[in-house]
Amino acid sequence: MTQEFATAQDAEDAFYDAIDERDAEQLRAVWEDSDDIACLLPMQPMLHGATVHDAFRPLTDGEIRVEIQVRHIRWLEAGEIAFHWVEELVKTPGNPPQPAIYALNIYRRGESGWHLLIHQNSPSPAPPGATPPPGMVPSR
Amino acid sequence: MTQEFATAQDAEDAFYDAIDERDAEQLRAVWEDSDDIACLLPMQPMLHGATVHDAFRPLTDGEIRVEIQVRHIRWLEAGEIAFHWVEELVKTPGNPPQPAIYALNIYRRGESGWHLLIHQNSPSPAPPGATPPPGMVPSR
């Protein structure tokens, strides 16, 4: 299925909707159809190319049911590339709420509209009072 | 100080050299001189614009002495934007070695060459046997 997204935001909405609806085909259609795609999920090895799709399979194939609330933080467009930083609040039934995590979603505009090129998660700040790991820049 | 870097890799080398040499002026010169710059250090709030420079001050002003070994993982160029994924092994004297972390360094080519636009760290995979946080996609 090839889908054209008119804006990076359209692609982003489709990305999180596809996870919410556990729609593997739709999720795949959000990604650019190329070996350039790359993904860094929390505490996971870096993936690129077709292996990216494998990483999301547990979210659509029923192994894990997640609900992701997304808060937009910042956007930046640079020609054919769009950068979207969001905060993801990931909830799984039966588990205590997790701290929100950051995601940087990077979209590229091609001949068939905007598609997701890179998805990269990063931990958000530790709770107040927590000790940062040694060598990390201390909280401001 | 305005410095022109002929390639994204030149800018990247200068970035890690400046941290190694604790050279705040050089470190600042690696970043694009704009409000578009953004940075996500491990467990830190997202920073953008001039506040990015503040976050690196402890690394150059003597509060923290770090040695960072960098391993290149993957590059991608898209017009005026270059994406470099690296693994950073951060060592601080007197502390046990930390697990390597991923960094995505994104460079933009402008009228005065390539400069760092975005620096974003992400945790690398948990050690074998460790339990991923609930809701996270399990290790492949």
Class per helix and strand makeup of chain A: alpha+beta
What Rg of chain A, in angstroms, do the CA atoms define?
16 Å
Largest interface: A-B, 56 and 56 residues
The CATH class designation of chain A is Alpha Beta
Strands in their spatial order, largest beta sheet of chain A:
2-1-6-5-4-3
The figure for the number of domains of chain A is: 1
N- to C-terminal separation of chain A? Answer: 46 Å
Notes on the protein architecture:
Chain A is α+β, with helices and mostly antiparallel strands. The first copy, chain A, has one domain (8-123): Nuclear Transport Factor 2, Chain: A, CATH 3.10.450. Helix content of chain A is 21%, strand content 35%. Chain A contains three helices and six strands, in the order H-H-E-E-H-E-E-E-E. Chain A has helices spanning 8-20, 24-30, 51-60, and strands spanning 38-40, 47-48, 67-78, 81-91, 101-110, 113-123. Chain A has a six-stranded mixed beta sheet, with helices on one face. In chain A, helix 1 packs antiparallel against helix 2. Chain A is globular and about 45 Å long. The N and C termini of chain A lie far apart (46 Å). The model of chain A is unreliable at 131-140 (pLDDT under 50). At the A-B interface, helix 3, strand 3, strand 4, strand 5 and strand 6 of A face helix 3, strand 3, strand 4, strand 5 and strand 6 of B.
